[in-house]
Design a protein that fits this description.
six-stranded antiparallel barrel, single chain, 589 residues, 12 helices, alpha/beta
Length: 589
């Protein structure tokens, strides 16, 4: 694909997640330029590992479409694990993957294969100094911290450009998350899961403590109340809404980002198909030409992030600190707002749906975070699978909001197809014909010896030649245009079909460009990232701030009785500290 370039004139790419090869194939069909997927071990999503055989087969499949496969080896390693990780890196290199995403920088001092290395966001990539350091170590791409604003991304871009220019090398590529779940702590600096459960986020087995409910306590360890007097007990105070920067892709391009990354290596195929197609559409709309014309995408659905797993949305510091980054009521998928509840009685609801909304039996709905499903529809009355546990608000001033978090018809419609467009040229030769299929990245010709027998119906002969040689069926290819540089000769349909069947399977795929890592010019040194059993005092370091979320930033609207502790459902106390100079919140024991 050839999409608009950023200010460094580098091709923009859409990077989609995959928990397995099946999801990866769906993402490729939906429009991904590259896929990131877990290796058998040492990935930051322990539950999303894949065998080497599966990865080899995926690489072969992806190469047909010109799609890169990136593999995650992004956990911190013990001394005992490091040799196995290096062996795996070589196996992945030999399997043809395009790059490895790593966190443990001690791998750079090992006998690694000559493969592109990308610095995982787990490396805590927040500053120009860190990006330059990684560039000097030989990394080809840095995955930026999710918390960065546009001005901070520009500062990193300017720093790596300057360093690269001084040393006569290509600047490191900048990759930014644009969609998906958010970690409340800076990536790589969360130890809460390891401290409370023994499951380390830096070792690929985070217990997602940020998605749990907490009591919010004051300095005297009493439950705080909000501004309306309601107790702040069992609140999901650390559960961020999902990232959605789809409206700001042009700004990210201008800031220097070359790769748009979708989070979700634990997400299902429906989610990945929907979100990949959504961002493919967004990226294409940024370019007047949209693509170089070598691929076409066809969908049976209109991509919509609210139709699959959806916790709401935030651009998360891209334009500075904003309110409502978190949802303290639920960590679950909230879905799309589709109407209001007018009345509830037993297993029936009377509703007013938004214009254009159509419900179906089996749809999943929710009111005030309580979920249920549709069993029947009679006009504006819904039969649901269970009575509500509490009455929803149904007065005219504030009716109960109805959300749909499972749209059965949308899920059934989720099908995307990608076709590689080829030009067909048929040329006459003295002893037969040369047939060529080609586009900007592929060119394949074959000569066939065959007599030149004049056709009794010239127009029909040319039409038959055009139609039969362009009939590519279930292959990944589709003929875009046909040029016939030949007189109208009689050639049986069976012969034309045999030529086509001989040509298409032999079509060469684009060869992977081998990009070796550059020499490590900066010592890893004493500050390398490697596994340690020692847990620091700060279990989480967050740019997200509960005070600001409550509307009580110390600089704007200070609260006399501030939150000082979080208490888990099992009674464990976590201490809150607010560093206003750094504009950070820290959580410790």
């Amino acid at each position: 694909m050839n999409y608009p370039a950023n200010s460094d004139n580098k091709r923009l790419t859409l990077l989609a997640p995959a928990r397995n090869a099946s999801v990866a194939r769906a993402a490729i069909q939906a429009g991904a330029d590259a896929i990131y997927i877990g290796a058998p071990r040492f990935g930051a999503r322990q539950a999303a590992g894949n065998s080497l055989d599966d990865i080899r087969q995926l690489v072969a499949y992806a190469r047909t479409y010109g799609v890169d496969i990136l593999v995650t080896l992004n956990t911190l390693l013990t001394d005992e694990e490091r040799p196995e990780a290096v062996r795996m890196a070589w196996q992945l290199y030999e399997a043809g993957v395009s790059a490895l995403i790593i966190q443990d920088l001690t791998l750079l001092d090992c006998d690694m294969p000559p493969i592109r290395l990308h610095a995982s966001t787990q490396c805590d990539n927040r500053t120009p100094e860190q990006a330059v350091r990684l560039q000097r170590m030989g990394f080809r791409r840095v995955v930026l911290a999710r918390e960065l604003g546009l001005s901070e991304i520009r500062a990193i871009r300017d720093a790596v450009r300057q360093d690269a220019m001084e040393r006569g090398v290509e600047p490191i590529e900048l990759e930014a998350f644009v969609h998906g779940a958010l970690c409340v702590s800076y990536s790589g600096r969360c130890y809460l899961s390891e401290c409370l459960t023994g499951r380390s986020a830096n070792r690929g087995c985070c217990a997602q403590m940020c998605r749990l409910p907490y009591d919010i306590l004051d300095r005297d360890k009493a439950v705080l109340r909000d501004d309306c007097g309601r107790p702040l007990a069992q609140q999901y105070a650390l559960s961020l809404q999902d990232l959605d920067r789809s409206a700001f892709l042009a700004e990210l391009i201008d800031a220097g980002v070359t790769t748009f990354k979708i989070e979700g290596r634990l997400k299902d195929e429906a989610y990945v198909t929907n979100i990949t197609a959504y961002y493919r559409q967004k990226i294409d709309s940024l370019s007047a030409q949209q693509s170089d014309g070598d691929s076409v995408f066809r969908r049976n659905f209109v991509p919509n992030p609210a139709k699959t797993f959806h916790r709401g949305q935030t651009d998360y510091f891209l334009h500075g600190r904003t309110a409502h980054m978190a949802n303290w009521q639920t960590p679950k998928s909230t879905g799309e707002a589709i109407g209001t509840v007018l009345a509830a009685r037993g297993n029936t609801l009377t509703v007013r749906l938004h214009e254009g909304v159509v419900l179906h039996n089996g749809d999943g709905l929710s009111i005030d975070q309580e979920g249920f499903s549709v069993n029947g529809i009679q006009g504006n009355t819904l039969l649901i699978n269970k009575p509500l546990s509490r009455e929803p608000r149904t007065d005219n001033r504030e009716p109960g909001s109805l959300h749909r978090n499972l749209d059965t018809e949308f899920l059934r419609s989720l099908h995307a197809e990608r076709r590689i467009l080829l030009d067909l040229l048929v040329s006459e030769t003295p002893d037969g014909f040369t047939i060529t299929y080609s586009n900007a990245t592929r060119h394949f010709s074959r000569h066939f010896v065959y007599p030149h027998e004049a056709a009794s119906n010239p127009e029909r002969a040319l039409t038959t030649m055009r139609e039969q040689l362009a009939k590519l069926g279930d292959t990944p290819y589709e003929v875009r245009r046909v040029t016939l540089q030949t007189e109208p000769y009689f050639i049986p349909i069976s012969v034309l079909n045999s030529w086509r069947r001989e040509l298409i399977p032999a079509m060469p795929v684009p060869q992977q460009t081998k990009e070796e890592t550059v020499t490590n010019t900066a010592s890893v040194g004493a500050s390398f990232r490697t596994y340690s059993a020692d847990i620091p005092e700060a279990l989480m370091t967050c740019r997200y701030c509960m005070l600001y979320e409550m509307g009580h930033c110390r600089k704007l609207n200070p609260l006399a009785n501030e939150p000082a502790y979080l208490r888990t459902s099992t009674g464990t106390l976590l201490r809150l500290t607010f560093d206003c100079r750094a504009c950070e919140m820290r959580i410790s024991r």
